Amino acid sequence: MIQTGNIEQCLQELGYAVVPVRGTSMWPLLKEGKTRVQVEAKEEKQVRKGDIVLYRRKDGTLVLHRIIKVEEDTFLVCGDHQWKQMEQVQEEQILAVAQGFFRNGHYIDEKTWWYRLYKKFWTGNLTVRRCCLAFLRLSGLEKI
What is the predicted pLDDT for the residue at 143? Predict the structure, then answer.
């Protein structure tokens, strides 16, 4: 279980935190037990479509999901492994924004060319995402 107090304390004291991935909602990019995400305190940073954000749900749960759409005063977020279950998030709920992630001992910055391409492709069309996820499930790659 993630100790949410520790994450928030790190964000306040250091300005960043490294968060373990729990669950499958951000698969295929982020995998439970294999990936840790480095998030930076939001503060005054502009949050954009495609960013992975750490936010607090109304029930207190901390969630890492990607911004799919920016509206006037809210954001629609969705896990990468989802194609229709979007959640509306207010700006004040967002605590931090992902800067990169660690997988297999390597750090991948959000500014790398392939990550930017993945982000644009994966947030561009949820129907395409649904087809890609179905293919991955049928091919057996989902279990890797």
Answer: 57
